[in-house]
Amino acid sequence: QVQLVQSGGGLVQAGGSLRLSCAASRSTFVSKIFGWFRQAPGKEREFVAANRNGGSTYYADSVKDRFTISRDNARNTVFLQMNDLKPEDTAVYYCAAGQIAFWALSTLRSTGNYNSWGQGSQVTVSS
């Protein structure tokens, strides 16, 4: 199981940008699928984006064209660049890793398919 350590997040005004980072502990990084999820108070954890080695990505409709997931294999790190942030993006954001055999939104959006999770990063967007 890979250990994930997140950094980034914070408070930003609507329309601003933030970048989250997720550093993985093991060299099996390349074989992993990485996802970003978020959880707002009183709501379930929801899928934000996923990435696999080679550049394939999936995004939730709510963040498409505003958020970008990327990875740096040399640094064992995954990033979530968040632009044009909105108050409804306020949540705790989690990175996750797993070896998911079926690359499809239906499997990528399920938290049960990921076996490693970061500690969470608070993102607060003020109006």
Structure characterization notes:
With 127 residues, this protein is mainly beta. The chain has 1 helix and 11 strands; from the N terminus they run βββββββββαββ. The chain has one helix at 105-108; strands at 4-8, 10-13, 18-24, 33-39, 46-51, 57-59, 67-72, 77-82, 91-98, 116-117, 121-126. Strands 2, 4, 5, 6, 9, 10 and 11 form a 7-stranded mixed β-sheet that branches. A 4-stranded antiparallel β-sheet has the order 1-3-8-7, with no helix packed on it. The longest helix is centred in the C-terminal third of the chain and has 4 residues, at 105-108. The model has no long low-confidence stretch (mean pLDDT 94).
Task: Write a compact overview of the structure shown.
This protein has one helix at 105-108; strands spanning 4-8, 10-13, 18-24, 33-39, 46-51, 57-59, 67-72, 77-82, 91-98, 116-117, 121-126.
